[in-house]
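Hello, quick one for you while I still have it in my head. My current little project is about how a certain protein chain folds up. You're getting the sequence in one-letter code plus the fold written as tokens. Would you mind checking whether the tokens look sensible for this chain? Here's the protein in full, and shout if anything looks odd to you:
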Amino acid sequence: MKNLKKNNNELIILGGYGVGMIAASIAKNYYNFKEIYFLNDEILTNIGVYKKYKIIGKTTKLKFLLKKRKYLFFNAIVDYKNLEKHENKNVIPSSKKITLIHPDVNYFKDTVKIAKNVLISSNVTMSTDVKIESGVKIMSNVFIGHNTIIKKNSFIAAGATIGGNVVLGKNSFIGLNSTVIENCKIGENSILGAGAVLTKNIKNKEVFFGNPAKKYK
């Protein structure tokens, strides 16, 4: 994209490599933020191998930075073990959150509802009447079928296919190149492994692998 409209806002991303760097790349190249910074509890200087971004502190600095008008925020942290604890600790007001959508995403804007603090990477295709709640991260080359609901803080890895009339519960994880057949429901805090083909429902806090996917004990 060329001749991007000037964006005088500054963005702070909570997170690091992986999702954080994808978010930074989309924000820089397609949203043209004036500056992009990171908060990270483990990396202390700069982040990025080729394109480097400055780390300006740990996540404990968030409360101080929220008082500054010029900053917007994106929470890119994927912490499956401590999602609720982390979210309660690092509350960002809705008015300061942004959603980052790669321009190559294919969907009908008037038939898809997308909340704040959502990341959608390149070459994602979404059918009609899809609802995506806050904190969801969708990686590249994912297909999402019609009338599907993806609930809060779910993660869909690259290459996954989600059929129509599917419900992904809060904090669920869908692995690389996996498939969820239509009309399936996946419970909260559940995992579908890489390459799996899910043909039935998953309850809360369950792990499924294989083709067809079976419960891991």
Observations:
- The longest strand covers residues 10-14.
- The mean pLDDT is 92.
